[in-house]
């Protein structure tokens, strides 16, 4: 009687711990959940009767044979031959009225046997356990190895895969290796050759496999190994290879002029590549604007240089002045009634602080102040002729009576007008967004911190 009480006490304590019962160290009192099931070791149907399709269940109960589903019953699971057990091999009836695990039997199969070249196989029961597969070869070939394989109980085939013997490999011969020079302005060369043919003593028709780039296509600079391989029906192999070498003729590295930079086509210094010279803001090009890499590996023409841009302010007409900026520089014309105009003074201060930023964007500042006979115009310290001032005002409709600022692009077109002072950030944002080309924007990013 004492042993049964101990057994019940242990199981009750185990159940309540699994059912979130609060246990205090050193105390025997505990609180059970209101919905906890009442344990009953006498109920023979505490758990449902277990079953195992294509298998056998053997159970042992602490209460005896008549209580095979009562609390504490343990069952051993075993599958029939040709089946594999998935899940637990041993389960127990728990206080929750559920078995501790599940299991089922899955039919065993061996993997699909691969086909053998020049042969075939037939199986008694497909790829199921105990099925036997017999191998045969085509006429003129013979089996090397075992003639049959059997699917064993563990899901593995007996023996090794046989072969159908044809020991004579095919024959193939590749074309000779070749060297090609890349075409002008390119880093590739088009290379072609005749596809090799293969012969074999056993097979009339053979497929020749290319490993590498196709003929009559553009090959990149460097060494390319071209391989051909061929297999007969018995998987005897033959192979050959040759080399295609593509050479790119190159000139020495071309350095940009001082206060300038270069932009090159193709790879920059390969035969046929063209490098255009450009100057930074405030400088203009003297010499050839572009050079070409020759077949002799030398650059055509002489080196160019970037010299400080000279603006002739003593010209007599506005067109003569504007022609100097055409496709070279942009113009920012600032006009005010007089030098004491507060808008002009504010704008002048902001422009002076951003003068370097104007140069990076190839912008030249022209100031027009006052009215005749005291009207003046200047580019920095250089004064403009009266006719030039009048020509600029008429061409771009610039008033003498109020502050204004006109932004012209490289073609002399009126792109934007400002009638109140603008900060450098707003001015530069407009120039960067609407007037700069892609190459100019890239250069600007490289030199953006130059003025700091």
TrEMBL record:
Residues 1-20 form the signal peptide. Residues 165-248 form the HYR domain. Pfam families: DUF4174 (PF13778), HYR (PF02494), Sushi (PF00084). Disulfide bonds join 137-164, 279-306. GO terms for biological process: angiogenesis; cell-cell adhesion; positive regulation of cell migration involved in sprouting angiogenesis; positive regulation of synapse assembly. GO terms for molecular function: signaling receptor binding. Its main location: other. It comes from Solea senegalensis. Residues 57-107, 108-166, 249-308 form the Sushi domain. The keyword Chaperone does not apply. The keyword Repeat applies. Keywords: Angiogenesis, Cell adhesion, Cytoplasm, Disulfide bond, Repeat, Secreted, Signal, Sushi, Synapse. This is Sushi repeat-containing protein SRPX2.
